Amino acid sequence: MGKKDSSVPNPDRVHGEVLITITVPRELFKKLKSIDIERVIRENIPKVEETFVAEYIEHLVKKRERLEEKLHEMEKSLARIEEFYKKALSDNELMKLERNRLREENKILKRELMLKRSR
User: Fold this and answer.
1) This prediction's pTM
2) How many angstroms separate the CA atoms of 18 and 10, rounded?
3) Which of 13, 21, 36, 52 is the most buried (most CB within 10 A)?
């Protein structure tokens, strides 16, 4: 079996490196000059990944709920169609019986008419 890809899909469909621009106020920038920003970013990457995964899971849960709602609507629609189909079959059966009854009645009337004409 192949190796399973455990990476989370990127919702922006960005592949490879991503350039992020952060704008900060001047005072904060002066404070950040003394801090090793790369170290802070590296330390926070797991938290960001965890947040991203949680947001993605939340997105999937909402999508699942919408799909389940759509499924219920389709099931209701299917039930209505099934009910309509059963009624149509029943009506068709009644119409066939009525047609056969009328055919028999027509045969009888034709015979009676032929008898009257032949007299």
Assistant:
1) 0.49
2) 11
3) 52
Residue 18 included in any domain: no
* Distance, CA of 87 to CA of 109 (rounded, Å): 32
65 found inside a domain: yes
Q: Is residue 44 part of a domain?
A: yes
C-alpha to C-alpha distance for 43 and 46, rounded to whole angstroms: 7
Whole-angstrom Cα Rg for the chain: 38
Please give the Cα distance from 48 to 10 (Å, whole number): 13
H or E stretch at 35? none
How confident is the model over 80-101, as pLDDT tens digits? 999 999 999 999 999 999 999 9
Terminal C-alpha separation, the chain? 94
Q: Which pLDDT score, from 0 to 100, does residue 1 have? A: 46
97, 98, 99, 100 alpha-carbon torsion, rounded to 10°: 50
Domain residues for the domain of 69 are 40-118
Looking at per-residue pLDDT, the higher value among 76 and 11 belongs to: 76
Inside any domain, residue 19: no
